[in-house]
Design goal:
Elements: H1 3-19, H2 26-30, H3 39-59, H4 66-75, H5 80-83, H6 88-91, H7 98-111, H8 116-129, H9 134-156, H10 163-167, H11 179-200
């Protein structure tokens, strides 16, 4: 394949990637956020948090590659470019496994135009989904920590309907693999509590 053909395939792939900018995080509007962040907004924040956390873990002796983890974070929501973002409440009505299968199929279709590079991206996605490495565990945690941090930000802007995000056990599932992840979660709870006290005064 020459460069011109490859270039066109890369732009086909980027059409899906760019679509993430237009897809709202549906859980936020379900709970009343009028102009919620996009999937791309969330992905950027997860990637930043992932690199910082993974880099600190590496300095503490954990066997982890911060760059691999960050690439995994960049691509972790790519399947949503085809199926959209489906919030937890809606997931209760979808049989177990069907949504995961649909998202993987969408993911495969998006990356297949990239050939071997697409296979590399797909392998990272599989690792993420299966929690198959320290990198995947950190991205999984960063995905939910960023979600809760965004909830805190929306609460600062006056939204008072977001407690379900804090109460959902699935959102806390991956915070206990490393002490730093647990500390990040506990720090969020502490900040939320302090700010809640401030609003009562």
């Amino acid at each position: 394949m020459d460069e011109r053909d490859l270039a066109r395939l890369i732009w086909r792939f980027m059409e899906d990637g760019e679509r993430l900018k237009l897809i709202p995080r549906s859980g936020w509007w379900y709970y009343g956020i009028k102009e919620p962040e996009s999937v791309a907004d969330h992905t950027l924040a997860v990637a930043m948090l992932t690199f910082v956390v993974a880099s600190h873990l590496k300095r503490r002796g954990v066997a982890i590659d911060p760059y691999k983890a960050t690439v995994m974070a960049v691509f972790h929501e790519l399947g949503e470019s085809r199926i959209g973002d489906i919030h937890l409440e809606a997931r209760r009505y979808i049989p177990a496994g069907e949504l995961d299968e649909a998202e993987r199929k969408a993911y495969e279709e998006v990356v297949k135009v990239l050939g071997d590079v697409g296979e590399e991206i797909l392998n990272l996605y599989g690792e993420f989904e299966g929690r198959g490495s320290n990198e995947a565990l950190v991205v999984r945690a960063a995905d939910k920590l960023e979600l809760l941090f965004q909830a805190l930000i929306y609460e600062r802007h006056g939204y008072r309907t977001l407690q379900p995000f804090w109460d959902t056990a699935e959102n806390r599932r991956d915070f206990f693999h490393f002490p730093l992840l647990k500390a990040l979660y506990e720090a969020l709870l502490s900040i939320k509590s302090e700010e809640g006290e401030d609003t009562k005064e």
